[in-house]
Amino acid sequence: MRKAITGHKAVAEAMRQIEPDVVAVYPITPQSEIAEYYAEYVHEGVVRTELIPVESEHSALSACIGAAAAGGRVMTATASQGLALMVEVLYIAAGLRLPIVIALANRSLSAPINIHCDHSDAYLARDSGAVQIFCENAQEAYDYTLMAQKIAEDEKVRLPVIVNLDGFTLTHSVQVVDLLPDEVARKFVGELKPLYPLLDVEQPVTWGAFAMPDYYFELKRAQQAGMEAVPEVFLKVQKAFSQISGRPYSGFFEGYRLSDAEYVLVVLGSTAGTAKVAVDEMRKKGWKAGLLKPWLWRPFPAKEIADALKNAKVVAVLDRAFSFGSMGALFEDVASALYACERRPVLVNYIYGLGGRDTSVPDLIKVFEELPKIGKTEWALRYIGLRE
Amino acid sequence: MPSIKVLAEREEKGVRFTGGHTLCAGCAEPMVVRTVLNAIEDPVVVASPTGCLEVASSRFPGTAWNVPWIHVAFENAAAVISGVEAAYKALQKKGKISRRIRFVVFAGDGGTYDIGLQALSGALERGHDFLYVCLNNEAYMNTGVQRSSATPKCASATTAPYGEAIPGKPQERKDLTEIVVAHGIPYVAQAAVSHLIDLANKVERAMKYEGPKFINVLTTCPLGWRTPRDSAIQQSKLAVETRYWPLYEVIEGRYKINYKPKERVPIEEWLKTQGRFRHLFRDPRGKELIAQIQAEVDRRWELLLEKEKCFGVQA
């Protein structure tokens, strides 16, 4: 069913269809509407979920951990400082191998305080052990929220999954979203099979044990195995979802006019939509321009992305956050991925769109026009739309 | 009310917290934990924040817990149990679970009075159905006797040591029990490890109520208090006799003092047996400081009597 709705509503609708046992959520701009929609579903009796209106994001994720360990299906949503507050327990959710889906309405981190979009919140959780997926539009936010539940709950994975959607750009703008019928979505997500639930009082289990140097390393290695299982599961879930939705999700990233491209942008999230228009404009002018938009950011599909980029002439990686003291995080990922290739493109790193700074089609055309002049890989940052 | 016989029978039927943990010799925590768990007949799920009990009971691959138990972090036990309890309710609604399960938190004073206070307040306000037991040993014992807001005035702690300029902790201890009372939950009590039947009775009474229940248990720590290993019970008894730690309940807002010492035992009697207060008996400022401590003990006791008088349990 096609509906004109915001990204928030799209995520909330996916959550309604999933109908988790527990949703624990705390308000923060630009996420609050997910919490509001869901509270409405609960208070109207549309879902049987236990809603925990917690007193902080730290408690939101802590309650999710308790509920997931108890054997329930759980979800939450947050943004920016809220995720920053959650990060301590996000590492623990991953360490305890709990399948918690978190919708992240991407927003900048303070200071200065700012409510608009960039990816510094997602980058903060980069090494947390959570799977991270980025969405270009509200449709993808809906689709990947459903898929995230399947990925998180796969027995090989059992990890938290963050579904990133750009704050305001996606959360608040109205787009046409094709929603699956409830029964189709529910059948796709299926039932959660709890593992070692706390509520199984006949078989008591100790969760969150204390591990000294004699065991800590092995337990963290086992966690890495969960992350290593993600790519295979991701593709399997995409395939199953494509069959029920008719939307052809296939692979860890979307390539747009990429196969023969000489000049390529790599960008996460909603700016990929803008980049597609810029690519079309460049193609009209006879440029072999292309785009690579990762859906899956953690774990990083290094080999596949390197294969897709290795024959390009110049690749511009766009990071929507600083990794202070280093090149952008996505740039570092792409550069490392290409290291093993015999033939490598020239790489350049642009920082863009911080604190909601708009990035337009002309901005990206300007980037394309700069690329042929860049003779070798640059280890200094360039900026888009910055006054200096 | 559970007699010693009943508690012992339950312990024999199935030990919920086993030996083999690594808590210190003379630690009062296991006595409180076993008494609380034996006073509850239904199956329980337990959550603990980081602290002595957690570290000493859950070293992988071993565990001292024969009941489902979860530890997540230091400041969030009340939030974690909120999630467990909410999942239980949701699964009940969906018909996936039918048996009655009770939820208990065991947390230290650091994880309750200080870093965990926000999560505790949130869980109390939301009305989750659980019992929160504070194992109050009056400092951060697990990390090496640092001061907490439960540490009594003038006690020497590693982050508030006795010194020439400042003789131990300058501030009074926070009255957390009354802060919890202000949340208007059905059951709040203070108990002490020296009065285990009183504690068991309180647990049994608490568990009759739906919603949050809170018991603040003085849980002596020979290591941190610098007292002999076999003194935990005497120390706790003296704390009650000196009226430093009154045993009382607030049931649906109504106060009841469970034990009123007949004689007024000076606080000095309690202070002088503990290494953490030793300086008070050597330092020239000691006398004045002991008088201040006594005055505060008296003030709080009088206030409690007043509260019982005005808001006592109705006959």
Description:
The complex is a heterodimer of chains A (388) and B (315). By secondary structure, chain A is an alpha/beta fold. Chain A contains 13 helices and 16 strands. In chain A, α12 (329-338) links the parallel β14 and β15 (346-351). The radius of gyration of chain A is 21 Å and the shape is globular. Chain A starts with a strand and ends in a 5-residue tail after the last strand. The mean pLDDT of chain A is 98. Chain B has an 8-stranded mixed sheet with strand order 2-1-3-4-6-5-7-8, with helices on both faces. The mean pLDDT of chain B is 97. In chain B, 38% of the residues lie in helices and 14% in strands. By secondary structure, chain B is of the alpha/beta class. In chain B, α2 (29-38) crosses α8 (196-206) and α4 runs parallel beside α6. Chain B is built from 12 helices and 8 strands. Chain B has a single domain, classed as Thiamin diphosphate (ThDP)-binding fold, Pyr/PP domains (Rossmann fold). The chains are: A alpha/beta (388), B alpha/beta (315). The interface between A and B is large, with 45 and 47 residues.
Task: List the main descriptive attributes of the protein structure presented here.
heterodimer, A: 388 residues, alpha/beta, Rossmann fold, seven-stranded mixed β-sheet, six-stranded mixed β-sheet, 13 helices, 16 strands, B: 315 residues, eight-stranded mixed β-sheet, 12 helices, 14% strand, globular
